[in-house]
Amino acid sequence: MSATIANAPAASVRRAFVDGHFGQIHLRKAGPVDPGTQRPPLLCFHQSPNAGSNFTRFLGEMGRDRLAVAPDTPGFGESDAPAAPPEIADYADAMGDVIDALGLDGPVDLLGYHTGVLIAAELALLRPDQVRRLILIGIPVFSAEERAAFEKRRGRFRSKRMAPAWSRNGTAFFIGAALGSNWPRSVAFLAKNNVRANARGGAPARSFATTRVLCCPA
Fold it and tell me: Which residues pair with 66 in a beta bridge?
């Protein structure tokens, strides 16, 4: 970051709605006054259950030299909820709608936090020619035993008894609906593409509780 950009005030964060697969998607965005100085746009995907408001201050900082966007994923924040519990691929499709609605034709960078990690990885699978870099915080790396236990818990959350709650308040359940059945595909993508990892304290990250940041090679 140049001294001029570093000394500039934080960018103003604005709110907007765009159309997506499941209705309107609410987002926050910030960017530089002079668009000619922009770096590739950065999209930030929040954890579940939560909303893009987590990134408000971060958007102001990153928006000094690029467009920075934090959508509310469908069913969270002020975004419309799907009629039924979505899978990670559905969330990724919706975030692709955001990219298209904002007219972002060139390369983009994605930042994911916890659930957002899987959304970012899935979107990179869907749009390999458009996603330039991934910044992934809190990636779920499980052993076979941990995955089996997780799937057992997930089955309880996705039981018929939970369906009325979804239709009543439009809220996705983190372990049940938010991760979905295809989350291992996103993790496999990260391993296949030889992403560089730096786990806190050098210890391997084995759960959501451990912060782990991964970036695709430049």
Answer: 39
pLDDT tens figures, 181-203: 444 454 444 444 433 333 333 33
Query: β-strand 212-215 against 131-137: which pairing, if any?
Result: antiparallel
In the prediction, which pLDDT does 7 show? 67
| pTM attached to this predicted model | 0.70
**Dihedrals phi, psi of 126, to nearest 5 degrees:** -75, -30
Residue type, 94: A
Contact 59, 111 (CB under 8 A): no
User: By the 8 A CB rule, do 213 and 198 touch?
Assistant: yes
Distance CA 198, CA 187 (A): 16
CB 42 within 8 A of CB 66: yes
Which residues of the chain have a pLDDT value below 50? 159-184, 186-218
How far is Cα 31 from Cα 59, in angstroms, rounded to an integer? 8
Residue 199's H or E segment, with its range, is strand 196-199
Distances (CA, A) of 215 to 70, 196, 197: 19, 6, 7
> Which residue type occupies 96?
G
Q: What are phi and psi of 190, to 5 degrees?
A: -65, -40
